[in-house]
From TrEMBL:
This is Long-chain fatty acid--CoA ligase. Signal peptide: none annotated. The keyword Iron does not apply. Keywords: Ligase. Residues 411-486 form the AMP-binding enzyme C-terminal domain. GO terms for molecular function: ligase activity. InterPro entries: AMP-bd_C, AMP-bd_C_sf, AMP-dep_synth/lig_dom, ANL_N_sf. It holds the Pfam family AMP-binding. It comes from the Bacteria. PANTHER family: LONG-CHAIN-FATTY-ACID--COA LIGASE, MALONATE--COA LIGASE ACSF3, MITOCHONDRIAL.
């Protein structure tokens, strides 16, 4: 019952301290605790109980975390959904986990009028019915939830591009939080501005700092101006974002005139830090930097490089090291046979420890594929140096990382192939100064169809979330493949 214990401790130790802030309101730790208990009882009155899956479709706001913690008290599983997904994508995820309820913002829920069974409850955070939950069931007993009981299904994607649900328990959240806080050495006055969404593994960073009693500031979506304003208004000490967000923030007109002197650490992850952005941020912000390397399947952030270990900008020749693994977790580089490679040797990074997932939801085959003798395969190539720091050198998969979000080429290729004029398609990463990488689609079309690139871009817009859509479509005569039929993406990149 890690999330429950977290709340009970913070209510006891810091009852009047602000726990959460969004653009509408703020709550203290005592208020957050009490509302979570009330909400858990209200959800139980609706028939939601241990083992049920409840999808959450919302931008970042206090009610999202209230719902996560309330469901954890019941032993029900919260299933965060990316609110930018297209209608078929949301329906597919809801159906695959067998969600009995979908909670979220009315504006988003209204886009998804038809959801598959067994969904029987739809409720909006911004409607009176949600606020009233629990007010008539104050004496209802809540169950005991063990640390080994699953409490969340966090969606990621596999190499095939189909979203997979990562099943995690309270023990995972606890292991990562305690290990991380040993490395980060938090103080009692942390105010963390969270620029990242609460619908995937990056939310574990916020949960971890909440365990230390920090104040977490939520934003409904990232804009440079919103982030700058939040830091200045709340005198934030910590800022959590992906490198492309940092680039946008430094480029914003208001960045020079905004008082950012309260910042002590910028936490960044999900993509490599561009060296020019790092150098400019060091010069402009004058604070420390902490790298976050994580993976949803291993519990989230399991490696960090702290401010005292970051090199000076002029000393970086390639990539900044990811850092050392947190206490309680183990990581190493292995060869194709699963044998640990010597110090400095390049291999696939694998991880094990109490933070790792229980498995992919209802997908034992995919779970077996990612597991190697009890270790979780990250799909990243790297090495461990003689001081225990992990360095990444490449990715074993063809994943495109656009502004910190994974985009899988095969998913885009399948969407393109649903157009009647498309004969073949291949998608690769196109370097982009602002987003790191964006998808570039090479397409073979029926020459008699008269199809234009703009038509294909419009076609996939109805099938894919905005961040997954190709930046550009280029027509080619033939997609290069090897004798086994595998696309030779190296040729396309060249």
């Amino acid at each position: 019952m890690w999330l429950t214990q977290l709340l009970e401790r913070n209510r006891q130790c810091f009852p009047g301290r602000t726990a959460l802030v969004d653009e509408e309101r703020s709550v203290t730790w005592a208020e957050f605790h009490d509302r979570t208990v009330e909400l858990a009882r209200g959800l139980a009155e609706l028939g939601i109980g241990r083992g049920d899956r409840v999808a959450v479709l919302s931008k970042d706001r206090i009610e999202v975390l209230e719902t996560y913690f309330a469901l954890a008290r019941l032993g029900a599983l919260f299933v965060p959904l990316n609110h930018s997904l297209a209608v078929p994508e949301v329906a597919g995820l809801v159906g695959r986990v067998g969600a009995v309820a979908v909670l979220g913002e009315s504006e988003l829920l209204d886009r998804h009028t038809e959801l598959p069974p067994p969904v029987r409850i739809r409720m909006a955070f911004d409607k009176p019915a949600f606020a009233a939950l629990g007010t008539v069931a104050r004496e209802r007993e809540l169950p005991h939830v063990a640390d080994t009981d699953p409490i969340a299904v966090l969606h990621t994607s596999a190499t095939t591009g189909q979203a997979k649900g990562v099943t995690v328990d309270s023990g995972s959240f606890r292991a990562i939080a305690l290990g991380w806080l040993v490395m980060a050495r938090p103080t009692d006055d942390i105010v963390l501005v969270n620029c990242c969404p609460l619908y995937h593994g990056s939310m574990v960073v916020s949960l971890t700092y909440m365990a230390a009693g920090a104040t977490v500031v939520l934003m409904p979506g990232f804009t440079p101006q919103r982030a700058l304003s939040a830091v200045a208004r709340h005198r934030a000490t910590h800022l959590w974002m992906v490198p492309q967000m940092l680039r946008f923030m430094l480029q914003a007109k208001g960045s020079h005139s905004t008082d950012l002197s309260s910042l002590r650490e910028v936490l960044y992850g999900a993509a490599p830090m561009p060296l020019d952005v790092y150098a400019e941020a060091v010069r402009r912000l004058g604070c420390g930097f902490r790298q976050v390397y994580g993976m949803t399947e291993v519990g989230g952030p399991f490696v960090t490089l702290g401010p005292d270990e970051h090199p000076a900008p002029g000393d970086v020749t390639a990539r900044i090291p990811c850092g050392r693994v947190v206490p309680g977790m183990s990581a190493r580089a292995v060869d194709e046979a699963g044998r640990e490679v010597p110090c400095g040797g390049i291999g696939e990074i694998v991880v094990r420890g109490p933070g790792v997932m229980q498995g992919y939801w209802n997908d034992p085959e995919a779970t077996r594929e990612i597991t190697l003798d009890g270790w979780i395969r990250t799909g990243d190539l790297g090495f461990v140096d003689d001081e225990g720091r992990i360095h990444l050198v490449d990715r074993t998969k063809d994943v495109i990382i656009r502004a910190g979000q994974n985009v899988y080429p095969s998913e885009i290729e399948r969407a393109l192939m649903t157009h009647p004029a498309v004969r073949d398609a291949a998608v690769v990463a196109l370097p982009d100064e602002d987003y790191g990488e964006v998808p570039l689609a090479y397409v073979v079309v029926d020459p008699d169809a008269g199809t234009r690139p703009a038509e294909l871009l419009g076609h996939v817009a109805g099938l894919l979330a905005p961040y997954k859509r190709p930046r550009r479509v280029e027509f080619i005569d033939q997609v290069p493949r090897n004798p086994a039929g595998k696309i030779l993406k190296k040729l396309l990149r060249a």
